[in-house]
Amino acid sequence: MPLIEDVVEVLGTTYKGRPPGTFGKAGVFSFNSNKIITTSGGGMLVSDDAERIAHARKLATQARDPAPHYQHSEIGYNYRLSNVLAAIGRGQLQVLEDRVQARRRKPVLSLSKGSTTTSRPSATCPVSPPCPKPPGAATPVG
Ligand SMILES: Cc1ncc(COP(=O)(O)O)c(C=O)c1O
């Protein structure tokens, strides 16, 4: 079964020295506005399979067949990321590392006195230890 990685939440990290999206047949990233870097919408498909990428690009750009007239032999979509948004994304890449580091420093949950839950430092630093422990952080529960 081919593995397509949903790597939306891990852009900028590595696992065992490899970036996400490189373990399976393809990886999918989102640049929606709530993501670590954003182009306001859209995303990115990565793969080392040039044929797969070419087909995905065709489907994302209305799947027009290479004919002088308008001909579609498969269903296409209008999922293209405009060149303006791509340029914004390239600019955003320059702040990616800073944002990854900032996220690693930030506790996921704040610990209140008497609470049975705790911040989870491991969740702020999923793949590249050692992680800085947030002040007052307790041992993760559960
Ligand atoms: C793991 C994961 N996959 C997919 C999505 C969907 O991404 P989008 O915001 O582009 O719809 C999200 C959104 O937060 C996500 O966290």
In short:
The protein has 142 residues and is of the alpha+beta class. 27% of the residues lie in helices and 8% in strands.
Report on this model:
With 142 residues, the protein is an alpha+beta fold. It has a 3-stranded mixed sheet with strand order 1-2-3, with no helix packed on it. Helices cover 27% and strands 8% of the residues. It is globular. The chain has 2 domains: 4-105, Aspartate Aminotransferase, domain 2 (3-Layer(aba) Sandwich), CATH 3.40.640; 108-142, no CATH class. It has helices at residues 50-60, 83-105, 121-124, and strands at 4-6, 26-30, 43-46. Mean pLDDT is 85; it is low at 118-129. Pyridoxal-5'-phosphate binds next to loops.
Please outline the helices and strands.
Elements (H helix, E strand, L loop, with lengths): L3 E3 L19 E5 L12 E4 L3 H11 L22 H23 L15 H4 L18
Parallel strand pairs: 1-2
Antiparallel strand pairs: 2-3
The chain binds pyridoxal-5'-phosphate (PLP).
